[in-house]
Amino acid sequence: MRSVSKYFDGGDTVANYKLDMEVDDGEFVVFLGPSGCGKTTALRMIAGLEDPSDGEIYFDDDRVDGMPPADRNVAMVFQNYALYPHMTVRENIEYPLKVRGVPPEERDERVAQVAELLHIEDQMDSDPGEISGGQRQRTSLARAIVREPSVFLLDEPLSNLDAKLRLEMRSELKRIQNELGITTVYVTHNQEEAMSMGDKIVVLNDGTIRQVAEPEELYERPRTTWVAKFIGSPPMNLFEGENRGGTVHLAEGNTLPTPAESSSSTVSVGVRPEDIDVSTDAPDTDWTLPGTVKTVEPLGEYVLVNVEVGGSVVNVKVPHTDATAGDAVHLTFDPADAYLYDENGEL
Ligand code: ADP
Ligand code: MG
């Protein structure tokens, strides 16, 4: 995509603004962002279901914007996968091949291949009404894949499945994409899905690209406070601070020994919940952030402690804690784990 924008309502709604990005051959790219940020619109423009208001879209060296969807050789799967109810699973999968005039023998072969790939061989003679939601979604994926499209587009395809199935389908989809080596763009608002499946994640907000990075990099180096507040569960804590000649003074009245490499005088200090320690005794450190425990949630894998520090709530993840609601506690963290964002919210 080269500087692709999409406006609706005579320009009043900016669905996408100057999207610049590339998807490599065989890559699994995820568009991640909150609801309404323009993910579906971007995908529909790649599919040809929507024309850009501005900019260019290329498949390899061929400009495709303005080209009808049928000429692009893309397959798209939506959240609400619509199967033909009066056709069996087999007939549903076979249909796109029939329409394209593929001879019966080759049709049988290709349908059998994708059925095996998606583990739905036993459901082939059932009607869509007789199979589970997960099997219906597998069938719609099979119907998309059977055409051997050059680009596979998926718009929140797992949203209608229950949590267990979603997990299962997540790794299935990744496996299938790997096996076929098919260039894929996957849209989701679910960061776990994005992190687990994406080779590369494109973070969108307000119709613009906020960061393009591999999952690990996105987690390790969120480029802006917006991305930092969006990634992680719970996301990074951000403390407002003032940078005075090499030390950061937090609004909470504490001085952090954080090396202030920023030229900005107003800064945000970001610390991940898992990088903060909470203790009921005053720890033997140069400084602490004193606060009051609001809630303690034992979540099995870890304990989530919400601590009020100077009017704002700080999320802390610890293996275990003696602290209970109402306790006065001290928070500490290694300054090396802190991120320093400038007045524009940039690293
Ligand atoms: P997402 O998929 O990230 O939830 P969308 O791409 O569906 O976001 O929508 C982005 C913005 O564009 C929203 O404000 C939405 O209301 C608007 N929008 C999308 N499609 C249309 C349309 N056909 N007409 C008018 N506005 C639209
Ligand atoms: Mg959408």
Characterize the structure shown.
The chain is of the alpha+beta class. The protein folds into 2 domains: 2-225, Rossmann fold (3-Layer(aba) Sandwich), CATH 3.40.50; 227-341, Beta Barrel (OB fold (Dihydrolipoamide Acetyltransferase, E2P)), CATH 2.40.50.140. 24% of the residues lie in helices and 32% in strands. The protein is built from 8 helices and 21 strands. It has helices at residues 39-47, 89-99, 104-117, 133-145, 163-180, 191-197, 215-220, 225-230; strands at residues 2-8, 13-19, 28-32, 54-56, 58-59, 62-63, 74-77, 151-155, 183-188, 200-205, 208-213, 237-244, 247-250, 255-256, 266-271, 276-279, 289-298, 303-309, 312-318, 328-333, 339-341. The strands form 5 sheets. It has a 6-stranded mixed beta sheet, with helices on both faces. It has a 5-stranded antiparallel beta sheet with strand order 14-13-12-15-21. Helix 2 (89-99) packs parallel to helix 4 and helix 3 (104-117) packs across helix 4 (133-145). The model has no long low-confidence stretch (mean pLDDT 93). Magnesium ion binds next to helix 1. It is found in: Cell membrane. Keywords: ATP-binding, Cell membrane, Membrane, Nucleotide-binding, Translocase, Transport. It is an enzyme of class 7 (translocase). This is ABC-type D-xylose/L-arabinose transporter. Part of the ABC transporter complex XacGHIJK involved in the uptake of xylose and arabinose. Responsible for energy coupling to the transport system.
